[in-house]
Amino acid sequence: MLSIYFLTFSFYSIYLQYKSQIITPWTEDCRKSTYPPSGPTYQGPVPWYTINLDLPPYKRWHELMADKAPALRIIVNSVKDLVNAFVPSGKVIQIVDEKLPGLLGNLPSPYEEELKGIAAVTEIPLGEIISFNIFYELFTLCTSIITEDKEGHLLHGRNMDFGVFLGWNINNNSWVITEELKPLTVNLDFQRNNKTVFKATGFAGYVGMLTGFKPGLFSLTLNERFTMNGGYMGVLEWIWGKRDAMWIGFLTRSVLENSTSYEEAKNILTKTKILAPAYFILGGNQSGEGCVITRDRKVSLDVYELSPKQGRWYVIQTNYDRWRNPLFLDDRRTPTKMCLNRTTQEKISLPAIYDVLSTKPVLNKLTVYTTLMDVTKGQFESYLRNCPDPCIGW
């Protein structure tokens, strides 16, 4: 019921915003020459941290979280304020603090111990740390792109959009949670024996992975998929004791850490039961190795692959099944395709992908960061973003 209220309020707010400004947000021409990042749409670089997988899970995140604890407390308090605005008694937060860890039971190793370590170093109740991790199963809006150039070279880019329905600041036309996530955005170099296992961009306090690559092998991004049989059902089933599915953020991290090829990663992402519906956007290191895997919680519905010989030199994914029209207020698919087609396969590059991801409404008020990945060259870049007005609410 709360989601319905958030949805109605958000749609109405955006309608009023654009009615007053008489702006059609979908008509911005494709951006050019936005790379290297600068200007009003660029907020700054994303800092790097090393996560030492040789450490006990409880200690792996201590250095990072010692730096980011104040920022994490701010966003956790914002979520608490939002919940308390709808349930003023404070009982929801009380249940989260006192009951949630017990209701969820043992989370998969090593993630439970990592979450306990984060709770200890930040002095935030474990239930609230777990809730912070659950949010990413439910509130992520994104745009992901994989392209192949004329030489068979693969490139992968994404905008991470997060925070829809989680508080709109009418004073500066921004989503509260989106802005509070930017100080928590970090690049992570996961190492074992002082060697990189994989790299990722994530949010401090969240131990799953939404954006990452295994140098030389494959790249992976995760987009949320909205269905009636959504992530909340998976969480409820987990609480009720049915625990044969994986948390999607834990699954993507496991794939990045343990899979040794594009085909192995694709097989796992296609077949593993998951708590929430999702789109997995997976790129490899050879011609044709790129796909969008459309997942229900229990089965794969579609695997849509690159096919350069048939003229399909890119695949894109926002948050709507490719065989259905996107929501009319949230059509990021059409401008993404338009700008890629204008770029052409002959001229595609990471700077060109950054241009596409900088074009409104692909870039929008929910965009936290943009990531560019070249698996073959080992190139991994992430940048914090702004979307100055006029800019669509998402």
From TrEMBL:
GO terms for cellular component: extracellular space; lysosome; membrane; nucleus. It catalyses: an N-acylsphing-4-enine + H2O = sphing-4-enine + a fatty acid. It comes from the Eukaryota. Its main location: other. Keywords: Disulfide bond, Glycoprotein, Hydrolase, Lipid metabolism, Lysosome, Secreted, Signal, Sphingolipid metabolism. InterPro entries: Acid_ceramidase-like (IPR016699), Acid_ceramidase_N (IPR029130), CBAH/NAAA_C (IPR029132). Residues 142-383 form the Choloylglycine hydrolase/NAAA C-terminal domain. Pathway: Lipid metabolism; sphingolipid metabolism; Sphingolipid metabolism. The keyword Lipid metabolism applies. It is found in: Lysosome; Secreted. Transmembrane segments: none annotated. Heterodimer. This is Acid ceramidase.
